[in-house]
Amino acid sequence: MTENKDQVAGLLLAAGGGRRLGGRPKALLSHRGRPLVEHAVAVLRAGGCTRVHVVLGARADDVREQASLPGCALVDNPEWEEGMGSSLRAGLDSLAGTGARAALVSLVDQPGIGPEAVGRVLAAYQGEGSLVSAAYEGVRGHPVLFGAAHWVGIAATATGDRGARAYLKEHAEAITLVECGDVARPYDIDTAEDLVHLE
After folding, report:
1. SS3 state at 12
2. Residue in 114, 120, 88, 81 with CA at minimum distance from that of residue 103
3. What count of other Cβ atoms lies within 10 Å of the Cβ of residue 161?
4. What value does the mean pLDDT take over residues 19-43?
């Protein structure tokens, strides 16, 4: 199984500007005494991703300066204000030519999703044709795993804040759903009220 794991790169989308949080970039929100982006990278690694690409956008220079992200490939998304779709495209672009055969995508603002969920989604990887999604009581959520065979199609449809939603809807019958509701909570940190979830 080890070779399999090496074929899957973790892809962390951490470019958001935290518009509804008064413009505080989500990557730099504090969680357990460190920037949230560090926590999210640690979760991907603990879940089994040996390679991690991190897409930065809002205040990318501050994130580079304040967060310790050794061994990560840091990808700048100059178009981050267009939404998550542009970050997903930038991240998938950054994986081209690296030998990765799949990307396991997670979002920086979901600290309730830990290594167990990442590990379950990773374990369902079969090859470049894989499409895998965590599910919460049967409802598709993050993390998601995209085999390389799907990257071009996803990049072509990833616009605005929809990310891969349109592509996944179109290929719903091909998705392997992996139930994670017993080990993770898929809330987002979007508004000031959501900050209660940070420790």
Report:
1. strand
2. 88
3. 13
4. 93
Distance CA 4, CA 177 (A): 19
Find out whether 103 and 9 touch, Cβ atoms under 8 Å. yes
Supply the mean pLDDT for the chain: 93
- For the stretch 6-24, what's the b/e string if a residue is b when 16 or more beta carbons lie within 10 angstroms of its beta carbon? ebbbbbbbbbbbbeebeeb
In terms of Cα–Cα distance, which of 110, 119, 125 is closest to 163?
Answer: 110
Closest CA to 26 of 34, 92, 18: 18
pTM over 0.85: yes
Rounded to the nearest 5 degrees, what angle is found at the Cα of 77, between the Cα atoms of 75 and 80? 140
Which structure tokens are listed for 84? 């998550």
Give dist(CA 168, CA 175) in Å, integer: 8
Pair of tokens at residue 147: 């085999």
Size (the chain), residues: 199
Structure tokens at 22: 């008064």
Distance CA 175, CA 135 (A): 11
Sign of CA dihedral 83, 192, 198, 143: negative
